Fold each of these.
Amino acid sequence: MFNTTFIKFKDIKDKYGHLTPIESKINIPFEIKRVYYITKVDDGVIRGFHAHKKLHQVLICLNGSVKIKLKNPNSEELVELNEPSVGLYIGPLIWREMFDFTEGSVLLVLASDYYNEKDYIRNYDFYLEEAKKVF
Ligand code: T46
């Protein structure tokens, strides 16, 4: 889907375990200004239901798995993150819904900017209006 892609990071495995390095503007297509993570999501909870006007993000499921529904005005895709060496890039004007977090799952998010509620589009009809200008 336009404006989303998977990013494969290095998975350095030795007898001591696995290590995945991530470097701003090297493995991630933007400068990382913010990091947050989502944990302890109860069964049946669906998060998201928004798009961003300008924000770029990469989502990485460090433990367990989570499903993500991605939408633009023309198409819809369902992806699952379950591997700490795989990131999901989501660019501007992509609607997202995250669900089926498994017990103990940890969803790490790297973001291109500081938190700004004004960058969120939380109304789906307004989202469609804005996104149709671009897609
Ligand atoms: C996204 C998906 C993947 C902050 O105060 N600072 C922050 O940096 C963030 C991300 C959130 N918040 C506050 C805003 C809300 O009061 O934390 C609360 C929960 O945020 P929200 O309902 O937006 O969480 P999600 O899981 O629906 O969405 C989050 C991100 O907000 C969003 O940018 O793309 O994860």
Note: The pocket of dTDP-4-keto-6-deoxyglucose is lined by residues 34, 36, 38, 47-48, 57, 59, 96, 109, 115 (CB under 6 Å).
Amino acid sequence: MLDRLRSALSDAIKSLASRALRKTITEEDVDEVLEELKLRLLESEVAFEVAEKLAERVKQRLVGLTVERGWDAEKAIASALREALLEVLGRPGPDLVEEAKRRCGGERPLVVVFLGVNGVGKTTTIAKLAYLMKRSGVTPVLAAADTFRAGAQEQIEAHASRLGVPLVKGRYGSDPASVAFNAVEYARARNYCVVLVDTAGRMHVDYDLMGEMRKIVRVVKPDFKVLVVDALTGNDAVEQARRFNEEVGVDGFIITKVDSDVKGGVAVSIAEATGKPILYLGMGQRYEDLQRFDPEKLVDSILPER
Ligand code: GDP
């Protein structure tokens, strides 16, 4: 899935290396190559301003560099790219399974609210995390706080029963914030360590999704607000990330459908646009298909071997 990014970076490295040989790299050398790199990043769905920032960071590291051998040049340039990418992607975010474990036996369970528009894979992602947590010895309580969409309650209920984890739901049309609140109370009373709250995601002009999310957040005071976005939607995912972060506040992201034919730029763009970490990647439809996101691993996978 990351082939495009990988070949863009690899071409930029070769091209810069050939200019750098036995002379000091000038701003002009870098500019020409980085213009090409920026175009290629855009084709890989890295957002425009992100491509600009990345190029600027690479430039700062490269102008003035002198190397004696071609091999060294490629290494030095790859390392500048690596550092710039890691700066953009940031540190790894919290491990929600470990965070949940830490709450066991405490006053209040860990509360994680999942946000995201319909169809991105929010409910599936919650089920995957529940599976991961249960396998690590912490059984989560699920909260079905989408009380509007037909089938939403049944969908999460089917996951809960397949996974053998408790579910707190509400009647259709009831207040989502009260469902989330009841789930936290349920968990607290029975000593569960973590609550995963599923929320609504419909985007209609006459309906205030952000207001509803803010209310849930006010009522249950989650430890983490996690936005789920679909990698296949490209720049739309970046826009959603920005908007939810501004209107509700987001502590981290989960990017789904990374197993499909995506161009890889979305992860880089979201991290840069919001400054918040990516926590997990959805890599398929099975419960096992959720991976913790590791910036170093991603960067290693898109840069030629060192
Ligand atoms: P929600 O409306 O956001 O709750 O979305 P759902 O959880 O119902 O998922 C929508 C569709 O996306 C379903 O068909 C899921 O199986 C699929 N899906 C979710 N995550 C992934 C993923 O990581 N990879 C793939 N290929 N499909 C996914």
Note: The chain has twelve helices and eight strands.
Amino acid sequence: MWPAADRHRGVRFPFLALGEQMSLKVYDSLSGKLDEFLPLKKGKVGMYVCGPTVYDWAHLGHARTYIAFDIILRWLKHRGFSVTYIQNITDVGHMREDSGEDKIGKKSSEEKIQPMALVEKYMREYFRDMDSLGVIRPDISPRATGHIIDMIQAVQKLIEKGYAYEVDGNVFFDVSKFKDYGKLSKVNTEEMAAGTRFEVHPDKRNPEDFALWKKAKESDPFKWPSPWGVGFPGWHIECSVMSAKYIGEQIDIHGGGRDLKFPHHENEIAQAEALTGKKPFVKYWLHTEFLKINGEKMAKSLGNYVTLRQALEKYDADTLRFFFTSTHYRSPIDYSEKNLEQARRSLESLKNSIMLLKRLTPSKGAKEEELEKQVKKTREEFEKAMDDDFNTPGALASLFNFSRTLNSFTSKSDSMSPELKEKILKMFEELGGILGLRLTEEKKAGGELVERIMGILIKAREELRKKGEWKASDEIRAELKKAGVALNDEKVGASWKFE
Ligand code: AMP
Ligand code: ZN
């Protein structure tokens, strides 16, 4: 049963001015409906989004999901909510490859660094990548390895309540004890059992039971003592435990990519609701669709991924954000160079309209009233689209509609009153900012052309280095230094900056 806030129906968004009626609708994957957004506590939102597994570089698929939630966060804040945003860091527990080998252990031996240094490195790189994309950092990024005691306590409680059982150092959740199992993913237990990819653990009572605590092997990189022997937590328990710790037993929004619905989120529900006595764990489940490449999900395991670092060498952050924003978060996106180029061009045309606006001289132009009306209309259309389950393509369309009117104005007039110009620029800055786009910012020194030329140079230098032509490669670096450009060679390729 939902507490308090549902009783405030009708008294929506009391922090808005009187008469400013609005209602945000979100699509809840559990109910399968577009529901009015009414948080558990008036004016406050607790949002938990499953974070990355940090053993390798972040790719564009990750960016798809985290940019979507970044925009959702920005919109909630714009609507006046005070949001607590939690995104965990999975640094243990979700790591076994099909072969049973631990991914962190495997990667740390490949890179010849300690397992903890490996997760530290990729967690930092993940933050750097997200910072480059202008993704707002969560309020808390709790790490699974920092919450082992909390997880052990939760597992113990689940055993006491009869939802879990221990066999030979492993603890499993007994899915048959949780009657609602499957309510999110709508998969029944027989289908789940049939779909089990891996050999079923012989100690499980039911094939679809899942691990809460795993007995460690000699080779496992991280392990801790527990009431059931030395081991480490299963993947799912970290999110139930950390969301409860930092938000509460019930949370407003829980998000992640579509692939997490089953088994991860299904298992999170089972654990959390078993622990709290069936209080609904999450009010609104939000899931993003995949970024695809050649018709398949972009994924580390499929080897068809483009890292964010690689993408950022070619396209600036605004282009990447624009590319993702042009599609609704619940629709799949196709990655291709062609689609990214298209995004770059569309964004450029929008920015050009703004550049032309900036050049207008400050005196009243003809037919300003029409444009003034359009500003109001654009804001309304933008807000309406965003209130409709964060419809970013609709929001972008309102900006493009406006830019067409603006273009027709600037093609006829050389001037505009400073007040109107300010108003339009403010609108672009604010609305663009909600999508994380810096529409009104001047290009940094050198602009996009220099970015592209540097990209070509860096690539050519990489080719030289591959062939062992170090002298030529060093000469390029030295010449660039003379020109005031510093090259920084990193494992994923070089980056550059003006000195
Ligand atoms: P992982 O690091 O694989 O656990 O993934 C972290 C988050 O990124 C999860 O919410 C995934 O669903 C999401 N994700 C991974 N690949 C993609 C993709 N190709 N498209 C959209 N989201 C993705
Ligand atoms: Zn999770």
Note: Residues 3-20 have pLDDT under 50 and may be disordered.
Amino acid sequence: MTTVTHGFLDDPVFGIVSDVASSLGVRAYVIGGYVRDCFLGRPNDDIDIVVEGSGIALAGAVAQRTSGKVTVFKNFGTAMLRHKGKELEFVGARKESYHRESRKPVVEDGTLEEDQLRRDFTINAMAFSLQKEDYGALVDPFGGIRDLSEGIIRTPLDPDTTYSDDPLRMLRAIRFATRLSEEGHPFTIVPESLDSMRRNRDRLAILSKERIVEELDKILLTSRPSMGFRLMDETGLLELILPALSRLKGVETVDGKGHKENFSHTLQVVDNVASAEAAQGLEPNLWLRWAALLHDIGKPSSKRFVPGSGWTFHGHEVIGARMVPGIFQQLKMPLNEKMKYVQKLVGLHLRPIALVDEEVTDSAVRRLLFDAGDDIDDLMLLCNADITSKNPAKVSRIRANLELVKRKLVEVEEKDAIRNFKNPITGEYVMELFGIPPGKEIGILKEYVKEAILEGEIGNNFEEADALMRKRAAELGLVPVK
Ligand code: CTP
């Protein structure tokens, strides 16, 4: 008999589950992510309980003791119960076999060991006993603890079986390797697993796009997303999931001149965004990270070699912005304001730098503020992240210039309040003043006023806007009715 005193099951809820299981005469275990995270010292309130018997029956009996409410998922044979901030998911131990065309397994009752064997990784297949006689004992038949301390992602079964059964696990392996490496302790996926992913990559076809994107999002939200995207690339998954990103790879050389390797550059920019957010104490912004990932997506289509001057990617930001909706649609991502935000940042990502190359005039700064609106700070963060040159003199020059743009942005915003620009002249006002119905004159007058404000010819206020609008209206033959 092993008694373990690690304290991982000190929360009284585990004692309750243990008592109830014992009174029902079934064996129950805590399994999966919670056990893994205990050893990693990471808080986790999602607790999976596996029982050699009915998970639903055990959940029901536990709920009676805790006066909780059980939600039963009949199709999956699972039941969920919330208790003091923790979410407990109960499931009967099972062995599974899979059909080739689906992630949905054929499920049969099984033992704990059979259940552990069907799980994705050794580090996710460990269990703590809830039996009275060995409460808290670690049940680790595949060396999960060893793999956790050595930083190894490995499947309990032959990886071809594990990945072919549920191809989402290929992305999960990459996500875990990337996420767990964050803690300063590198994790690697064993070579047999990486080879197996290469062999099984076409199995991704049976996954829903939503599940794939969920994993991409989780990888993007880590502190070094580049690691995950490189692994996806090396295993051939990226080409199937985000072909437009794969196309950024490689360097073409003409007349001895090569261009920037845009794939590495892009990944560096995503990592830079992650580091900048952390340094500034900001919450990770998923959509800013998507914008970083896609910021140069238009480069392959805009690439030209101009004899005498070299490579150009002229207009890649416009092409890139146009590609964003298609990419979101292909991945079944929301085509809402999040997509528009990503599209906007991709389209504007060169503007602050372009300002620096020219003279930083007030009107150029006003136009930038007008176009970026409330997303100006995110755009500036992206722009800074986009500086990946290895030439320190160049880097400090661009950074200093971007600082200048930032100061100007503050100055101009204080003076002219362009960030949430609202035209001081409304359509209703024009119609009432001149007694005219809706028509093109209204658009002409409003545009005229907006341009004058952005150019700095007049201030952003009603008096000056009204005077200018009346002058222009007179030229159009409009006369005030009162
Ligand atoms: N699991 C699996 N195959 C999957 C998904 C999950 O074998 N495709 C098993 C693993 O044992 C995993 C457990 O189910 O630990 C719970 O899965 P999930 O809640 O998705 O992940 P966690 O491991 O808890 O990790 P996280 O919450 O950080 O995603």
Note: The chain has four domains: 1-150, 152-241, 252-416, 427-475.
